[in-house]
Amino acid sequence: MSEASGTQNVALICTRGFADVLTLGRQHRADPYAVHVGPSPWLDRLPPAWRIELPGRIDAAGVEVEPLDLSALADRLRGLPGKPAAVVIALLFAPRNPAHERAVREAVARLLPGVPVHCSHAHDAAGAEYERTVATLRAAGCVLPVPGGSPAEPSGGQGLDAQVAGIADHIQAVLVDHAVSSVVREAMDCAAGIFLPDGRLVAQARTLPLLLGSLAPAVAGILAECPVAQMQPGEGFASNDPWRGGTHLPDVIVLRPVFAYGRVQALIACILHHQDVGGTTPGSLPPDARTVFEEGLRIPPLRLYRQDRVDPAILRLLTANSRRPEELAGNLQAQWAGLQAGDAALQRLLDAGDGFLRKCEAAIAASEAATRRALAAVPDGRWHYRDALDGDGRGDAAVEVAVTLVKQADTLTIDLTGCADQVDGPANASRGAVAAAVNYLARRVAPDAASNAGCLAPITVRTRPGTIVDPAWPAALNARTNLVKLLANALLGAWAQAVPGQVPAPNAGVAVVLVLSGTRADGRAWLFTEIIASGAGAAPWGPGGSGVSTDVGNARNTPAEVIEAQAPVRVERVQVRAGSGGAGRHAGGCGTVRAYHLLEGQGAIAYRGERHRTPAQGAAGGAPGLCGSARIERADGTVEQLPAKARAMWRAGDRLVVETAGAGGWGPPGDAGSEIA
User: Fold this and answer.
1) Mean pLDDT by 10-residue block, N- to C-terminus, for the chain (677 residues)?
2) How many CB atoms lie within 10 A of CB 285?
3) 373: how many CB neighbours lie within 10 A of its CB?
4) Rounded to whole angstroms, how far apart are CA atoms 503 and 490?
């Protein structure tokens, strides 16, 4: 078939439990500020009916741990919608031991003589199972259409906006390449931005809005205690303090002044989620913390680098408070490497006069003007939206999220004073974290404006001290992602009333954060962090995508092959949670199912979910999505259901199953064109 005709009659044979890996991809989106994410294009290019799962497993060491079972292969091939033009075989860890793929290839050759067969172990694709599968499909002629340009490309072509944004992307790429932990290298839980010396944002990388939107408050917090006038070339400053612009303690911000012609011409900064900065649980995300003291080491703004060298005394202090000291030191060095690369790249744009500054000022003014024009085009009004968190980690009582938008002329006031009082558990969010949700709405108001400080100039945010969105020290707040995602959805829900027909139904509004840790049978410790996506809301123009990181989230998932290479855990299922999206004229996106099997020793689970009791609502008559859940299936046959925020222990033979929530549908179910996710 031609590329333009959709399905290409290629059959995919994969490991049992992994047929949906192609649909789910890496769960992120190319445009971090895209308000709607539709279904995976792979559903049309290689529909589920053309995918075959087979039992049998090779492990990370290349050892067969489950025999290959080909008994059903003949029937499955006969059950395909037609004769395949080619067959692709992509089994887990095939490059480490291709025996299973070779056996399947021989069987297919006997059953389908003359049909080309392509094995993934023959393709040295960068990445793990998803990337290798795509590379093998490409070799078989099954490819996705090349999109006609990135929707995230900044306005201005090769003007200053594009050039500076490109440098921010370069900082991000270097940071990821040098990072040590999988939550950065694979999940890309980091962000970078470029600022003027007064702290105003000029450009940011196109990655994770949750961190991008919080960078500016963090930079302001550092500048308040480390004045630019006192900075020297080669210095670097760090902080993670939520009461000085930070988010939560694992997110460490590092800032570097960029000097040229004897003065600071710009600031570059990055933020990275460090795997462990102390606290009561491995991973520094205790779901039942009561104060920030239980969450890890709090770092006030301080000078960490001098003359491009880390201060050894401060580094010893930081690493002494981490369960992963080498990893923390390595990730800090990755941040510095990214900033050094950004400094070098930025030098070519700087000049002895004020040309760079004037161009940046003009870009910020243009974004402000675009945002004001967009606001002026909307009728004045006041709109409300309410949602609720499923408890705070210490109790089960719902925690109310209430937003009011007041639009007048070319200004917008975001009133968050109706949000609940701060809670005992870690579901609070600092003002710096809340800024990410505000920034996301600003990008929705004027999506064509370059992403800089000008977008926020017409927007005023009102909070009430002592609430979940403006908590008093020493509140616990490591679970701030839950609140910020629901807040972003609530802001979009209120804005949807101002611009009917232009905003999708609510996303599931949850990214499960899972920290698994433990001890092997020989006593060696292990730890990793997972970020698991849910469903995207349906829109007036189409259904929502399944298992995709939405709104302020945009982290990638961690491949099963990466997890199994670093921990005694077998990932048994990576699937779309079929039917969990809300019904409607256009169905909401479905959540996901991930199942983990602990193979040896014992370990701890820190689970931070949401939407266990309060579903994502539909819009315009669409149905809500299904709630999420998590459970431990014990080796003795008992099943333990976990609440939305939980700590638990597990032992060899136990399984953890996480099912994330679905998103809201759009329009009454049964309308013409109704679709079910």
Assistant:
1) 58 98 94 92 96 98 97 97 97 97 98 97 88 95 65 50 94 97 94 97 94 96 98 98 97 98 97 97 95 98 98 98 97 98 96 89 97 98 97 95 98 98 98 97 94 96 98 97 96 96 95 94 92 97 97 95 97 98 98 98 95 96 98 98 96 98 95 49
2) 27
3) 13
4) 12
Q: Which of 235, 233, 237 shows the shortest CA–CA distance to 260?
A: 233
DSSP state of 230: G
What residue spans of 550-677 are helical by DSSP H?
Answer: 560-566
Write out the H or E segment, with its range, that includes residue 139: helix 129-139
Please name the residues in contact with 535: beta carbons below 8 A apart, sequence gap of 6 or more.
507, 508, 544, 545, 546, 547, 548, 550, 580, 581, 588, 589, 590, 591, 616, 625, 660, 661, 662, 663, 677
Looking up tokens 């977008």 gives 455
Say what the pLDDT of residue 7 is: 63
Q: Please provide the size of the chain in residues.
A: 677
Using alpha carbons only, what angle is made at residue 183 by residues 182 and 184, rounded to the nearest 5 degrees?
85
CA 406 vs CA 382, 384, 497, 548: distances in Å:
5, 9, 12, 31
In 10 A of CB 638, how many CB atoms? 9
SS3 at position 83: coil
Question: Which amino acid, one-letter code, is at 483?
Answer: L
Phi then psi for 45, rounded to 5 degrees? -70, -40
Phi-psi region of 180 (alpha: psi -120 to 50; beta: other; left: phi over 0): alpha
Backbone torsions φ then ψ of 75, nearest 5 degrees: -65, -40
In this structure, are residues 558 and 181 in contact, taking their beta carbons and an 8 Å threshold?
Answer: no
Q: Which residue bears the tokens 């639009």?
A: 407
CA atoms of 229 and 239, how far apart (whole Å): 19
DSSP SS3 for 78: helix
Cβ partners under 8 Å of residue 669, min gap 6: 583, 584, 585, 621, 622, 623
Q: What's the start-to-end Cα distance of the chain, in Å?
A: 26
Q: List helix spans (H) across 347-457.
A: 355-376, 431-445
Q: Is 129 helix (H, G, I), strand (E, B) or coil?
A: helix
- Angle value at C-alpha 550, between 42 and 5, nearest 5 degrees: 20
Tokens of 235: 């210095």
Contacts of 436 (CB under 8 A, 6+ apart): 209, 210, 211, 212, 213, 214, 247, 484, 488, 552
pLDDT at 672: 54
H-run or E-run covering 244 = none
The Cα 135–Cα 599 span in angstroms is: 30
Give the tokens for residue 428: 């609070």
Question: In b/e form, how buried is each residue of 127-143, taking b as 16+ CB within 10 angstroms?
Answer: ebbbbbbbbbbebbbbe
Phi, psi at 516, each rounded to 5°: -110, 135
User: Could you give the CA distance from residue 644 to residue 395 in angstroms, rounded to a whole number?
Assistant: 10
